[in-house]
Design a protein that fits this description.
- With about 230 residues, the chain is of the alpha+beta class.
- It has a single domain (about 25-225), classed as Alpha-Beta Complex (Fumarylacetoacetate hydrolase, domain 2).
- It contains five helices and 18 strands.
- β17 (about 210-215) and β18 (about 220-225) form a beta hairpin.
- The protein is globular, with a radius of gyration of 17 Å.
- About 40% of the residues are buried.
């Protein structure tokens, strides 16, 4: 097969302790999955989950120095547990959902909060607030058997050594298995899909020179530095 232009390189995420990599197909993000974060953003915690997406090539490796994004003066961090789908499916039962997960890691949903506020006010999509270049830093993934149950465990992020967000996976309104099952009723999940499962309270702005370190108990940590544009 030939193409009229060269195809884009396959986006991928590192696998801990291996030279192998996890190929990324799509990135789905769960909105409003921790009650305290829902409250700090002024929303109703009784609402069902909703989803937005990021492009696969938005992933950024741990240790990267990434430029401060264009078109924003209010860049926010949102630390999240990431699920890596290894087996696809639709209408997956909750009790079967984790059988479809290859592994897990930690990610940061970077958000151009000022653009998001404008989009919300106008009733417009969030694409340019959430799905911009390098908006999805990702730590190395570990196979599910090494990741634990993912039903509890500390989740946190520091900026320049100062704790900004801290919570526990047990505080998720929709736990990992529920996220997989519910999302599979809306799209056919496929191998290579990533699910970012929502963020705890404490989201705040980062700027030039800031070093973000994020983690989830039992998973490799993630470090990213913001540099000049």
């Amino acid at each position: 097969m030939s193409y009229v232009i060269p195809p884009a390189p396959q986006a991928s995420v590192a696998v801990a302790g291996s030279s192998d990599r996890f190929p990324v197909r799509r990135i789905f993000c769960v909105g409003r999955n921790y009650a305290e974060h829902i409250r700090e953003m002024g929303n109703d915690e009784r609402d069902p989950p909703f989803y937005f997406t990021k492009p696969a090539d938005a992933v950024v490796e741990s240790g990267a120095k990434m430029p401060y994004p264009k078109a924003t003066e209010d860049l926010h961090h949102e630390v999240e547990l990431v699920l890596a789908i290894g087996t696809g499916g639709t209408d997956i039962a909750v009790q079967d959902a984790m059988q479809h997960v290859w592994g897990a890691g930690v990610g940061i949903d970077l958000t151009r909060r000022d653009l998001q506020a404008v989009a919300k006010k106008a009733g417009r999509p969030w694409d340019m607030a959430k799905g911009f270049d390098q908006s999805a830093p990702m730590g190395a993934l570990v196979p599910l058997a090494e990741a634990g149950s993912l039903n509890s465990g500390k989740i946190w992020i520091t900026v320049n050594g100062e704790t900004r967000q801290t919570g526990d996976l047990s505080e998720m309104i929709w736990p990992a298995a529920d996220c997989v099952a519910h999302l599979s009723t809306l799209v056919a999940l496929a191998p290579g899909d990533l699910i970012m499962t929502g963020t705890p309270a404490g989201v705040s702005a980062v700027g030039l020179g800031d070093v973000m370190e994020a983690g989830v108990d039992g998973l490799p940590s993630l470090t990213v530095t913001i540099t000049a544009r």
